[in-house]
Amino acid sequence: MADDRHGSRFGPTRGELKFRLAVSVAGLALMVFALFYRGIPTGPAFVEVVGLAGLFFGGTAIWTARRLLRTPRDGTGD
User: Fold this and answer.
1) What are phi and psi of 37, to 5 degrees?
2) Whole-number Å distance between alpha carbons of 31 and 35
């Protein structure tokens, strides 16, 4: 039976995790670009743009990177 430290056979593959990480990093990069281009928003927009988007993309990137580091490579090259 698969242990959580070594990945689950029902969880995402390494290729899917790499895709999630790429999308998360791209989302963070676009958010930073938008902040530089349009300026830092004030009021509730700050919470929406920086807080929610940063939390979503940043949290997903951290979770995915940790998961990639913990899952063993199976040698298939994905």
Assistant:
1) -75, -45
2) 6
- CB burial of 63-74 (b: ≥16 within 10 Å; e: otherwise) equals ebeebbeebeee
Task: Give the whole-angstrom CA distance, residue 6 versus residue 46.
Answer: 39
Q: What is the pLDDT of residues 13-50, one digit of tens each?
A: 899 999 999 999 999 999 999 889 988 888 888 888 88
Torsion of CA 34, 36, 38, 43, to 10 degrees: 90
> What is the Cα–Cα distance from 39 to 28, expressed in whole angstroms?
15
**How far is 30 from 7, CA to CA, in rounded Å?**
31
Six-digit token string for 6:
């070594």
Residue 33 and residue 37: Cα distance in Å, rounded? 6
Exposure string (b/e) for 23-51, b if CB count within 10 Å is 16 or more? ebbebbeebeeebeeeeeeeeeeeeebee
